[in-house]
């Protein structure tokens, strides 16, 4: 198999290859979703109340939103003309996007346990989460730039 079937190196391969610059964006998306929904877990617990959400439930919600996003992106966004390159993603790309988003959510869950559960530091957990989210956004921007730089000029 060719390398470009796994990694999109030019714009024409985005959404078709297993991994492209949007794959990094899905890691960010998984981190962001987990951080937002974990508010329902960490804030009540910090105040001494029993939280409605568990971190496992937050992770399940994260995965469900990632799957819903792929459906919206490849059906509704495509119909609206908002989809990049105006084509549906390949199945391998969609699966990879969901799995990488889950990895982002899992990473946020791990740090929720290490920072919040052990030290009860809501501030530390969300500070780290926001910094991690920002770092992944920077990686996404760099990979997007490199992908467009490698593409032939039309």
What does this structure look like?
This protein has one domain. It contains 4 helices and no strands. It has helices spanning 21-46, 55-80, 91-119, 122-150. The longest helix is centred in the last third of the chain and has 29 residues, at 91-119. The two termini are 27 Å apart. The relative contact order is 0.18. The model has no long low-confidence stretch (mean pLDDT 82).
Kindly summarize this structure in a few lines:
This protein is mainly α. Helices cover 71% and strands 0% of the residues. The chain has helices at residues 21-46, 55-80, 91-119, 122-150.
What's the arrangement of secondary structure elements?
Blueprint lengths: L20 H26 L8 H26 L10 H29 L2 H29 L4
Helix pairs in contact: 1-2, 1-3, 1-4, 2-3, 3-4
Structural class: mainly alpha
Question: Compute the gyration radius: what is it?
Answer: 17 Å
Q: Strand tally, please?
A: 0
Q: What percent of the residues sit in helical stretches (DSSP H or I)? A: over 70%
Percent in strands? under 5%
Low-confidence stretches: none
């Amino acid at each position: 198999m060719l390398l470009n079937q796994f990694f999109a190196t030019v714009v024409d391969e985005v959404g078709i290859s297993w991994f492209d610059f949007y794959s990094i964006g899905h890691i960010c998306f998984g981190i962001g979703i987990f951080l937002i929904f974990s508010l329902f877990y960490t804030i009540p617990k910090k105040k001494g109340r029993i939280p409605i959400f568990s971190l496992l439930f937050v992770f399940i919600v994260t995965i469900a939103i990632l799957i819903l996003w792929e459906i919206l992106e490849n059906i509704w966004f495509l119909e609206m003309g908002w989809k990049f390159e105006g084509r549906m993603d390949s199945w391998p790309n969609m699966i990879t996007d969901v799995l990488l988003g889950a990895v982002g959510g899992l990473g946020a869950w791990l740090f929720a346990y290490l920072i919040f559960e052990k030290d009860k530091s809501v501030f530390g957990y969300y500070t780290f989460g926001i910094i991690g989210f920002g770092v992944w956004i920077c990686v996404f921007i760099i990979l997007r730039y490199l992908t467009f730089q490698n593409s032939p000029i039309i």
